[in-house]
Amino acid sequence: MLPLELNLGPLLPEHLSEIFVGIALFLIVWFVVAKKVVPMFEATYAERTEAIAGGIEKAERAQAQAAAALKEYQEKLANARQEAADIRAQAQAQAADIAAEIKAQAAEESQRMIASAKQAIEAEKAAALRELRGEIGGLATNLAGRLVGESLEDDDRIRRSVDRFLDELDSQKV
Amino acid sequence: MHNIVPLLLPLEGDTSWPPSAASFNSRPLFPGLGIDWVNNHMMQAVIGALLVIAIWLIFSHRQTVVPGKRQFLGEMAYNLVRNSIGKEILGSEFRPFMPYLVAIISFILVNNLFGELFLFMFPTFSKIGYAYGLALMSWLLYNAVGIKKYGFGHYMKKMTLPDGVPVGLWILIIPLEFISNFVTRPITLALRLFANLFAGHLVIMVFVIGGTMLIESGTLFYAAAGGVSILFSFAIFALELLVGCLQAYIFTVLTAQYVSSAIAEEH
Q1: CB nearest B78 (choices: A14, A32, A41)
Q2: Which residue(s) pair with B49 in the sheet?
Q3: Number of domains in chain A
Q4: Which of A19, A149, B77, B110 could form a disulfide with B133 if both were Cys (CB 3.0 to 4.6 A apart)?
């Protein structure tokens, strides 16, 4: 059999323990770094990311609030404008109503005045007619009496015939 | 001048010329008790682990939404792993792997920087055992994650047989993919880390030990060359600083890459 002994020179550890000591020390370092160091750094990074993201989110929220306030303000302004326009329109309508009412009243008043004036005129006219009728009757009988030569004044029959005549006259006229 | 070597290379096993693999030998902390695995390099690894834990606990202690200077520094370090490795490679599924990635990059980085840090001046991962350990962990991780997601049979098929391979090539592709995904990956992961630090540190040892020997030679010309050599070792230290950071990053990126390929949806 060939001797399998290989001279590794410096590639052969002086003590095999070096391998185990190296591994053990590294495992300890690894353990501490894994338990204490990396979680701490990563937690800090996460916290920092969150803080930055939170700040951005807060700013966004503030911006949204401002936009909402602006919108609300604009809506209110528009509402107020609308309301003012409505009131103005209403006022105009009312004014028109009032004017129309006043006009109607005035028209009615004038109508009424005209009517009363007409009535008065009618009454005057009736009175004048009545007076005239009486006078005409008197004058006519007087004249007829003079023509006939005797007084007919106090004769009731004559008076009635005069009245009838006058009524006929009236009905013809109407 | 003879105190330069203990200052620049305090933890080496053997500082005789020429530097070799033996220079990387550990010194038992309690010689004679038969527990030679409790040695200076193991203590350094323990200190490294404690340092990593302490630094991260300080960074993550009492965090606030608006970070202070300490937390800001911590977040910069954490975000490097989280964004340029985790999110970049693993996408939205990065979160469960963050502890592993953070732990592995910082554990490797601190131990690599020990190579340029006074009192230590020795990169832990130039001891290959530690590199094997971490590579094994990453290997277990990505396979466990893949098996958990797809089940063993489906996962093995997914990892060894890419879609659209003609049946005639299966006999070639399946063993190749198997070796590539299950054998080469962990070995290269370990060797890349180890070899970079081992080689870099060996170069430093050459300059420091050789330079010291030249300075102590008593000849003026040699002493001058030795001074330059010591100065040059500082340049190599600077280079090693870069290599140490790079290797920590690469190890982590590759681990994330392997995890990503293990859980990736088939197309």
Answers
A1: A41
A2: none
A3: 1
A4: A19
